[in-house]
């Protein structure tokens, strides 16, 4: 049984390395800027959703307010960059730390809440963040921040002539989030999280530190999402409250994991690989008309997959559990 | 002295409008609380139910010149059918999910919300619409120097009447008792011949009809556009959670609190921050009472 498990983990790692290599080679064949753009967003959302999945999937604390951490990452980086000339790399780290600290600070009161009360609290806190940034003059208020062009280099993390560096960074972020998940899955934390998710009372009585498990998951999850937000700000080079802290980001982080398979290692990647290109293509094809066809397609897909495959698309690939145990 | 009088009047004025708006928030939210209490399902398309009710009022006015006040029962009836159909075609199946039941319910209704928004954009365009000349629109009544807008006043009265009706219905009629029984033990009611599915479909219909009533009144004084539901939906969730999920009369109290808090916040903070007050009160209340004000502990 243990051997099987170790073999599965090795197999996962090999598959991930192979997929990452294939992904890294795609720019050699894909020269179209629109397609590259979609690939970058797909990788970014795969990474974000993977990070969301740590708190909401593995630890079972459904957050629909992760846009807060995404926005904090973006704003920390750009405020440090535009006001104090701090390189985005340090800003990225700072944004991650700020978000992780805020996630833990919020965790104190939030993790006492259950079910819908928790979900609504996460939506509400992100909305409060959004409204505060809307009214914060120093941070550009509703006008936002236009990121000045200071160079075209990895040092400044700004690229004017090509999108490729952004592509590789998004790929690295996605791999990092996947690897962190892979690593934590088999750690003490991973077991704690699953216990907390399945039955917090039972976990507590068996000596699991429920509260600190949730705090740990929240910190890791918020840190990685903030790094994503920081990347996104550099990528689009203009931020305002709605465009980095809007509810749609919370949703777009949750959906890939839900569609692919929540609380699984591969769910977020699979979900993002299907959902994000579909979203971008329908928007590209119909969105310009402002007639909502993209929303209709997208919403229908969510309903159908939720109803038909409650465990997510990944359940299509998994063999029935019995064969695994028999071997 | 004169300044004090002016300030006091301004405060009473905003509390009065806050109270009226709060009663309306209660009416918007009660359907959500009813459905949740009945079957532990949160309808994430609740705001979109409000949106189609507003459009329905608008089109009945635009095409048939029926005043929203007259068409309100019609709108409520249409929403009743719509709610029951949503239950029978979608939610019923979502509830059968063997795995991740909570997520399936959230995302089934959430997907429905997105589809409804898309359909509204497709058929009605994203334009902002309003009902220009209704019986109540733009009129105010002055009571002792306090100005009360008539649409909100009528809305508040309708809300009180609806809650009274709901109370009577749940406690005094057989069907109401069937609803109460089903919510307490859906398995046992089958033994006494109550069809769970019929009760649930009726509950969804009733919940939708109530938000339909709210929508018909809102249409008189609020812009109508495909995304209009989103902002009211969040307020409705906060209202329901404040009252305690599932507590129908908690929604009534929650609505009043939300309305008053919003009015007070607008007095002390810039208008763009008025929702911060509501959200903060929500957080404060659930931190102290994690199951809302009137939820069972």
From TrEMBL, chain A:
**What membrane topology does the annotation report for this chain?**
Multi-pass membrane protein
Keywords tagged on the record = Cell membrane, Membrane, Transmembrane, Transmembrane helix
One matching Pfam family: BPD_transp_2
- What InterPro entries is this protein classified in? ABC_transp_permease (IPR001851), LivM-like (IPR043428)
Q: Which CDD domains match?
A: TM_PBP1_LivM_like (cd06581)
Keyword Transport in record: no
What's an example of a GO molecular-function annotation for this chain? branched-chain amino acid transmembrane transporter activity
| GO CC entries | plasma membrane
Keyword DNA damage assigned to the entry: answer is: no
The listed locations are: Cell membrane
- For this UniProt entry, which segments traverse the membrane? 54-75, 87-111, 117-133, 166-184, 215-239, 251-276, 296-317
Q: Tell me what this protein is called.
A: Branched-chain amino acid transport system permease protein
Q: Can you name the source organism? A: Bradyrhizobium yuanmingense
What taxonomic lineage is listed for the species of origin? Bacteria, Pseudomonadati, Pseudomonadota, Alphaproteobacteria, Hyphomicrobiales
């Amino acid at each position: 049984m243990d051997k099987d498990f170790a073999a599965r983990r090795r197999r996962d790692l090999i598959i991930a390395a192979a997929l990452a290599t294939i992904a890294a080679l795609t720019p050699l064949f894909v020269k179209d800027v629109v397609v590259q753009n979609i690939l970058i967003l797909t990788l970014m959302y795969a990474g974000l959703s993977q990070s969301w999945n740590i708190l909401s999937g593995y630890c079972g604390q459904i957050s629909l307010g992760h846009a807060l951490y995404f926005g904090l990452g973006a704003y920390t980086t750009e405020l440090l960059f535009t006001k104090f000339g701090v390189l985005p790399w340090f800003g990225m780290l700072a944004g991650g730390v700020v978000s992780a600290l805020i996630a833990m600070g919020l965790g104190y009161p939030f993790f006492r809440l259950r079910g819908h009360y928790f979900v609504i609290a996460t939506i509400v806190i992100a909305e409060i963040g959004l409204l505060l940034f809307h009214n914060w003059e120093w941070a550009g208020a509703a006008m936002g921040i236009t990121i000045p062009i200071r160079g075209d280099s990895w040092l400044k993390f700004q690229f004017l002539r090509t999108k490729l560096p952004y592509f590789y960074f998004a790929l690295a972020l996605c791999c990092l989030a996947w690897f962190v998940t892979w690593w934590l899955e088999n750690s003490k934390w991973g077991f704690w999280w699953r216990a907390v998710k399945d039955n917090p009372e039972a976990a507590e009585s068996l000596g699991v530190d429920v509260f600190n498990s949730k705090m740990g998951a929240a910190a890791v999850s918020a840190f990685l999402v903030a790094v994503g937000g920081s990347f996104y700000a550099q990528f689009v080079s203009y931020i305002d409250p709605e465009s980095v802290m809007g509810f749609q980001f919370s949703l777009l982080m949750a959906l890939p994991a839900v569609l692919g398979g929540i609380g699984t290692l591969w769910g977020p990647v699979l979900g993002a690989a299907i959902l994000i290109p579909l979203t971008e293509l329908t928007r590209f094809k119909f969105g310009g008309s402002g007639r909502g066809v993209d929303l209709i397609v997208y919403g229908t897909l969510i309903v159908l997959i939720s109803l038909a495959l409650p465990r997510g698309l990944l359940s299509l690939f998994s063999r029935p559990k019995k064969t695994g145990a028999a071997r | 002295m004169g300044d004090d009088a002016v300030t006091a009047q301004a405060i009473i004025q905003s509390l009065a409008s806050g109270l009226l708006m709060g009663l309306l928030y209660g009416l918007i939210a009660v359907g959500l609380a009813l459905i949740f209490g009945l079957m532990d399902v949160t309808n994430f398309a609740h705001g979109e139910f409000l949106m189609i009710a507003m459009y329905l009022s608008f089109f009945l006015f635009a095409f048939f010149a029926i005043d929203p006040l007259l068409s309100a029962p019609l709108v409520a009836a249409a929403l009743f059918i719509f709610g029951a159909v949503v239950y029978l075609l979608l939610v019923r199946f979502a509830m059968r999910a063997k795995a991740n039941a909570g997520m399936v319910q959230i995302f089934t209704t959430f997907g429905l919300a997105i589809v409804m928004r898309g359909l509204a954009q497709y058929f009605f365009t994203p334009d902002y619409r309003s009902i220009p000349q209704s019986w109540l629109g733009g009129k105010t009544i002055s009571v002792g120097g306090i100005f009360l807008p008539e649409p909100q006043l009528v809305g508040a009265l309708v809300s009180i009447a609806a809650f009274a009706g709901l109370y009577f219905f749940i406690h005094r009629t057989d069907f109401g008792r069937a609803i109460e029984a089903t919510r307490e033990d859906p398995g046992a009611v089958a033994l006494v011949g109550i069809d769970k599915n019929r009760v649930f479909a009726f509950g969804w219909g009733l919940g939708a009809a109530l938000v339909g009533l709210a929508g018909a009144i809102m249409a008189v004084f609020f812009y109508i556009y495909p995304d209009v539901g989103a902002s009211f939906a969040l307020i409705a969730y906060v209202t329901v959670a404040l009252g305690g999920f599932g507590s129908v009369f908690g929604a009534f109290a929650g609505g009043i609190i939300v309305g008053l808090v919003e009015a007070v916040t607008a007095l002390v903070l810039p208008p763009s921050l008025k929702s911060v007050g509501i959200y903060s009160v929500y957080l404060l209340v659930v931190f102290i009472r994690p199951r809302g004000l009137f939820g069972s502990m």
